[in-house]
């Protein structure tokens, strides 16, 4: 029987979508649709590369979270949004009519059409990507010959991946690692001092940096750079480039096909009043960094605004609060970046872990974060053993505190 409650469809149930769902009351018939079964905590997937976390350590069962919020979950991929007829269609042929819709489908990787990249480079965006890379690294570590790993992209995720591969040196694995970056320095969107500090941190290890370098070709054994230089690549990790998900291209919700979906400062689509957009796929009037914490803040405002719009009430404005960033570099250090200020300290890893645990508990059960805590306890125990205890030995703690530095 059709529901008499207003229908809300949320496309994508990760950071923005799940937070929005948690804000919507059960007066609405809310359906969250996601192509993947689990919520994925992307900011920590690099830790799978060294084994300090495993798959279960960074996921939550989405269906359980959504049902705890009192809503329905559909595990399916959306293929079409028909905003003239207010309906969403999925890959399995399901039609989901809506009164209001939230698009929170994030982004997808792009290899910019570089020959061989899709076939031979392993993407680094999803939990399964990280599991696949970790398994390849395990195999390479077992070889007699020292293997060569090429990381394409010297942004935050590329640097965090490098840190985790270096963390493995404790297991006796050493690789030749190349980092290829198109810009003139790594971490180019962040303060110069951070990039200089990172360079000093990886100077003792077999890491070669190629800045101002584009990749022109990838094959099963090598990566070719502009200018013709070939790097041996037993493994190529692609940590560069993101774009609008394919299914959002022909929706008529943007001016040009590949543009992020424009919204006003209430996160309402510029092209349809009953469609809101939150997270990475939104183009805000004042752009923000595509980060999980902004996605969650947008999810909160979008959830509230859908409720308000359905009740004909005034909409809230989204204002991005400045947020510090925590960037980890294996067991070598963690950087805290706030505006132009950077602090480096190995003990900041504990702060990053704390943010993660608290947010996972909140997402699991926003109203009673401790009630459904079996997973949280399991994850916290693993993280404490693998991440915190090694930092809390008297000598490491001393070095960590002494080694805490403000970077000019
Ligand atoms: C390796 C890596 C490291 C990162 N580190 C950090 C960090 O340290 N700190 C930080 O703040 N941010 C970090 N980010 C960025 C952060 O992960 C994103 O900003 C955040 O995930 C955006 O949230 P979102 O909800 O908009 O999209 P996503 O988290 O990407 O979620 C989109 C959801 O939509 C679903 N979806 C997509 N297409 C469809 C479809 N057709 N049908 C149904 N469902 C669909 C997906 O399955 C997914 O669940 C990192 C990202 C990566 C890749």
Q: Care to give the gist of this entry?
A:
It is built from eleven helices and 26 strands. The strands form eight sheets. The protein has a five-stranded parallel beta sheet with strand order 5-2-1-9-21, covered by helices on one side. Helix content is 30%, strand content 24%.
Features:
408 residues, 3 domains, FAD/NAD(P)-binding domain, globular
Report on the architecture of this protein.
- By secondary structure, this protein is an alpha/beta fold.
- It has three domains: 128 residues, FAD/NAD(P)-binding domain (3-Layer(bba) Sandwich), CATH 3.50.50.60; 122 residues, FAD/NAD(P)-binding domain (3-Layer(bba) Sandwich), CATH 3.50.50.60; 83 residues, no CATH class.
- Helix content is 30%, strand content 24%.
- It is built from eleven helices and 26 strands.
- The strands form eight sheets. Strands 5-2-1-9-21 form a five-stranded parallel beta sheet, covered by helices on one side.
- The longest helix has 19 residues.
- The protein is globular and about 65 Å long.
- Flavin-adenine dinucleotide binds next to helix 1, strand 2, helix 6 and helix 8.
